[in-house]
Amino acid sequence: MKAAITAVAHNTPETVYDNTWFAERLDTSDEWITTRTGIRETHLRYGIGLTDILLPAAKSVLEQRNLQPSDVDCIIVCTVTADRVFPAAASMLQAKLGAMNAWGFDLAAACSGFLYGVVTAAKLVESGAVRNVLLCGGDMMSSILNFDDRTTCVLFGDGGGAVLIEPSTDGTGIIDHVLRMDGNGEKHLHMVAGGSLKPATVETVNNREHFVFQEGQAVFKSAVKGMADVSYEIMERNNLTGDDVAWLVPHQANLRIIDATAQRMGLTKEKVVVNIDRYGNTTAGTIPICLSELHQQGKVKAGDNVILASFGAGYTWGAVLLRWSISSKDS
Ligand code: UT7
Questions:
Q1: Domain 175-323 has CATH 3.30.1360.70
Q2: Of ligand 1's atoms, which has the minimum distance to the CA of residue 154?
Q3: What pLDDT score does 328 carry?
Q4: Domain residue spans in the chain?
Q5: Mean pLDDT of the region 72-81
């Protein structure tokens, strides 16, 4: 028995901010942002909770499977921007959904959160510990962005998605994974204050330490190598060539990182899901949003080999190979 994604949905705030909005306020330009990152616009809604964004997606995946909230066994929310430091966003989503029989937890692996979550949820289902997992990935990056810092605020967006992970017996589902972590990357990408190491004080607020800190170039170099390496490795050990892979669904941090990964895998551009132009980097939200759009557009068929790949804070990175389980919307 394998575990498979059996339903998928996403949600983002309706309010859209294009590059011009940033260029009117900061020393930046549409040209710089587009050519360096691939981003044209992001969806942002400062001051609402992550679970408010995830709730419609969670309801949608249950509807797609004709399940009631009481049928959910486990909820995992992958995020670094939960509604509160505690309790977990999973608890808050459980209450909003009325999933009274579910247990669950949050998983903090930043941009690789959804990949770590897919593997964790699959193992719970495959072991028989639970019948299903409502797996969500998303981030409200606006809550931790310094809108005076042009090097970070133009990069990120708000949004997320949900999938249902259930048993599969037809050979489709989650086939293999390569997950990695290197904590030495912490110095290049983190939030300075707000944790137990440096709790919030008037000083930390005045020093603007509750925001994303990123040394872009250092992260870029590791991301290009890390994401391409694991994507190539998962193909090689499953004897796949570029022809066998229907879709690469990469984390959307930078179009140049995505292109380098696709090139290493021998994939043509048509097989690579890109929506960074419309959403920016929604951290744990990028991959479920991509999967949801791919399915909605009827572009992915049951049986297709799909590779998910990510790189992010931690550092955390990885690749997951799955054989798509949901019938195409067109079939
Ligand atoms: O998802 C989590 C993991 N994160 C990532 O994967 C992000 C990886 N890093 C990147 O995507 C890229 O490094 C960035 C998009 C963040 C930056 O692109 P870059 O080509 O590496 O630029 P840079 O940081 O080397 O900066 C080049 C120049 C600098 O100016 P000087 O020092 O050459 O005068 C920056 O100050 O561009 C400047 N710059 C900007 N200029 C206009 C930085 N941000 C901006 C901006 N507008 N928004």
A1: no
A2: 48
A3: 76
A4: 2-171, 175-323
A5: 98
> Where in the chain does DSSP place strands (E)?
2-11, 16-18, 41-43, 74-78, 103-107, 133-140, 158-168, 173-181, 189-191, 212-214, 247-250, 305-312, 316-323
**What's the mean pLDDT when you consider all of the chain?**
97
* Same fold flag, 2-171 and 175-323: yes
Write the pLDDT tens digit of every residue in 239-281.
999 999 999 999 999 999 999 999 999 999 999 999 999 999 9
Query: Averaged over 298-325, what is the pLDDT?
Result: 97
| CA 286 vs CA 7, 38, 127, 136, 217: distances in Å | 17, 14, 28, 11, 21
Reply yes or no on whether 111 is catalytic.
Answer: yes
Residue with tokens 């949801």: 292
**Topology given in CATH for the domain delimited by 2-171:** Peroxisomal Thiolase; Chain A, domain 1 (3.40.47)
Q: Which residues line ligand 1 (CB under 6 A)?
A: 28, 32-33, 36-37, 111, 150-151, 154, 216-217, 219-220, 223, 253-254, 257, 281, 311-312
Q: What is the pTM of this model?
A: 0.97
- pLDDT for residue 331: 46
Residue 105 pairs in a beta bridge with: 76
Instruction: Give 207-220 pLDDT, tens digit per residue.
Output: 999 999 999 999 99
Task: Using the structure block, give the residue that is written with the tokens 């941090």.
Answer: 253
Query: Which of 27, 217, 227, 286 should be mutated for ligand 1, with most atoms under 8 A from CB?
Result: 217
Nearest residue by C-alpha to atom 30 in ligand 1: 151
Q: Are 15 and 134 in contact (CB under 8 A)?
A: no
